[in-house]
Write a structure and sequence with these properties.
This protein has 440 residues and is an alpha/beta fold. Helices cover 33% and strands 20% of the residues. Bound molecules: arginine. Arginine binds next to helix 8 and helix 9.
Length: 440
């Protein structure tokens, strides 16, 4: 194809996708007015339960909210009766891998192409949305499959949560974010590998160029990678600082994979926005997180799956061994960080375990010290703040997207109610409704 033919083709695709987005039949949003009657509504900003509330939705946003009786219900509005349910904001998960499968670990990963991963992503996006997670951060995906997935969801082609995506995770040669499975003659190197301050800056710029809207790097070894030590720092302070500086300059937040004590502290000092896993954080790390306002995103459910089913799913024996070392310590440190008052955002590492099981983590957050409201705040208003999306998602207030879920049981009484989400709306469109009984 000639250059001008390529330009024509791209222009045509852009016009066509624009037309699709504007087509009233596309499932992007509905312009009609919808009124939701909520028996109970969680005000996650104030940590309160409000009874008998009304939400008015126009198009994809909430335009009014308040006590039933105090809100004018437009005569032609479509009314949704959730008077026997608890309504809360759609949930946020800050650490997922939609393009990964829980039954493809270790050497099985080598057989998965990027297009194949993208197709898994489409299926997993639907499951994630259906189970109540309306916004996720996808932190690490090969070949920008995550960008494609986000864009297909935004264009209304497939259902899925709103997505912030990182593209390939940035990491050192031989580190947690590299591919260390094969000997040298195969020359297998993961997309995001870079060493040195300028090389990592280039990776950040490249990820931005191809559509990432958050940056993820690996600051220590990990559980599921071959040949890495969980506690060992990866990248120097200078490299971490370069990544953070470049990302922040380009308007992106930085999520850092870090289990090890020193890597956690180095990343916080370098200006990371969130520490993912944070398993071996010590008192000084906690103090630094408080000082810098760094969020911790601690995946304290996934250990159950790794130790329970990991071997069957292809997880390497050395990884199982590392998980046995770190799993319980991470939970104990979750409690310590919580008691110290560190900011906590919900992150679960879905994709390591089955997508759709994200909400199982809530019970663990309670077991290790949170109140039900704190756990829900971590997955709503606090995650929204970490994502930089607090004007749009995370609470049910006028101006934000109409992203909400409803559950039949009271989640403050029994947080496991969140594993049985019966109603899901995203951007004013109902994706799941087992509650009102008047839909097909
Ligand atoms: N992706 C993470 C890693 O490989 C999973 C860690 C899971 N274990 C845990 N206790 N959170 O390091």
């Amino acid at each position: 194809m000639t250059r001008s033919a390529v330009i024509m083709l791209v222009a045509l695709i852009m016009v066509a996708s624009h037309a699709l987005a504007d087509d009233p039949r596309s499932n992007r949003e509905s312009a009609a007015v919808i009124v939701i009657h909520a028996g109970a509504l969680l005000d996650v900003e104030n940590g309160e339960v409000l009874e008998q509330q009304v939400l008015v939705i126009e198009g994809d946003r909430i335009v009014a909210a308040g006590d039933a009786g105090s809100i004018d219900v437009p005569a032609d509005a479509q009314e949704i009766d959730l008077r026997h349910a608890t309504v809360l904001p759609g949930l946020l998960d800050g650490h997922v891998h939609l393009t990964s499968r829980h039954d493809v670990h270790g050497y099985r990963r080598l057989a998965i192409s990027t297009p194949r991963a993208a197709i898994s992503g489409a299926a997993n996006a639907r499951i994630t949305l259906d189970t109540g997670f309306t916004t996720v951060r996808n932190v690490g995906a090969p070949g920008f499959a995550d960008v494609a997935l986000r864009d297909a969801i935004e264009a209304g082609e497939i259902p899925g949560p709103r997505m912030l995506v990182s593209g390939p995770s940035i990491g050192i040669t031989g580190g947690h974010c590299d591919n260390n499975l094969l000997p040298a003659e195969y020359a297998a190197v993961a997309d995001g590998v870079a060493d040195g301050p300028w090389a990592v800056r280039q990776r950040v710029r490249e990820n931005a160029k191809y559509g990432a809207n958050v940056i993820k790097f690996c600051g220590t070894g990990g559980v599921l990678s071959k040949g890495t030590t969980i506690g060992a720092r990866q990248f120097t302070f200078e490299e971490m600082q370069a990544i953070v500086d470049e990302a922040h300059t380009l308007g992106m937040r930085v999520a850092v994979h870090a289990h090890g004590t020193e890597g956690i502290k180095t990343a916080i000092r370098a200006g990371a926005d969130s520490i993912e896993h944070a398993s071996l954080i010590d008192d000084e790390g906690i103090r630094l997180a408080l000082e810098h306002g760094t969020f911790l995103s601690m995946d304290i459910y996934v250990s159950d799956f790794i130790l329970g089913s990991g071997e069957e799913m292809g997880i390497l024996p050395e990884s199982l061994e590392k998980e046995r070392e770190v799993g319980t310590l991470q939970r104990e440190n979750f409690r310590r960080a919580l008691e110290a008052g560190v900011r906590m955002s919900f992150g679960s590492d879905a994709g390591v375990y089955p997508h759709g099981d994200n909400a199982r983590q809530f019970a663990h957050m309670l077991e290790w010290g949170m109140t039900p409201m704190q756990a829900i705040q971590a997955a709503t208003v606090h995650a929204a703040e970490l994502f930089g999306l607090d004007a749009d998602v995370g609470a049910l207030t006028p101006g934000r997207f109409a992203d909400l879920i409803a559950v039949a049981d009271d989640p403050l009484e029994n947080v496991d109610a969140l594993t049985r989400v019966d109603f899901v709306m995203k951007g004013g469109k109902v994706y799941r409704d087992e509650l009102t009984g008047d839909r097909d």
